[in-house]
Amino acid sequence: MPASQLYTSPSPSQANQAFLSQMPHALWRGDAIGSHVSPSVSSGHPKLDRELPGHGWPSSVLTELLWNQNGSGEFRLLAPVLKQLSRAGKTIILLAPPHLVFAPALEQLGIDIEQVLLVQSEKPADRLWAVEQVLKSASFGALLCWLPQARPDHLRRLQLAAAGSEGLTFVFRPATAQQESSPAPLRLLCQAGPEGQISVEVIKRRGPVASAPIIIRPELPAIIERNIGKLRFSSSNPSFDFPHAMDSRLPLPTAAGSRLSSLA
């Protein structure tokens, strides 16, 4: 048989590459950013989307957002997706925010507050129960819940419940929780910066470790933009001297399950 007709078996690496190429959606390479089986929704921040699996906020899972201080940019970070969902008629549920939500600021971010439902619950156990009930519902667009005292076993329960939902689930916890284990597939460490900037570091995702924090500047509501000169910032303890989406100077609302439009 001529040498040109001799069969040469492929090398192991070639065989592996050929095998993997036949099932691109079934396998994930450790050196590539993974993607979720469930749909993702763009965060509205192109630089952030490039670092998120699926190029957006994943549905049907927990996304853990760790902040060094409440009220320092949570709503501005999520405003693009909340605007999109609320204007599509999807309900946005705010569960146990630590301070009174400042409705005019949300309106100026483009969020339809007619679609925002505010639920207050003081006891940690009641909060967990309420989150599970929401996750069992298919009618919500996004759930934002503040669970500063949640343990890993609590989060595992919620992650299992989130798998059966179709909405986006964001869990806010203190930055110190980054040292704790968490079943959340996506964890971001967020910190307010000068001139309205937000530093976002991806500390857990399906894929390679993020090389550096992402610096973004989400839209500032006009009511804040007019007072940006009053912003006092330090890397360890940012503080604000003007009304923002969550105003720590105002008392908690007492009504549970209130539509935010009634509080505007």
From TrEMBL:
GO terms for biological process: negative regulation of cell division; SOS response. InterPro entries: Cell_div_suppressor_SulA, ImuA_translesion, P-loop_NTPase. NCBIfam families: ImuA_translesion. This is Protein ImuA. It comes from Noviherbaspirillum humi. The lineage of its organism: Bacteria, Pseudomonadati, Pseudomonadota, Betaproteobacteria, Burkholderiales.
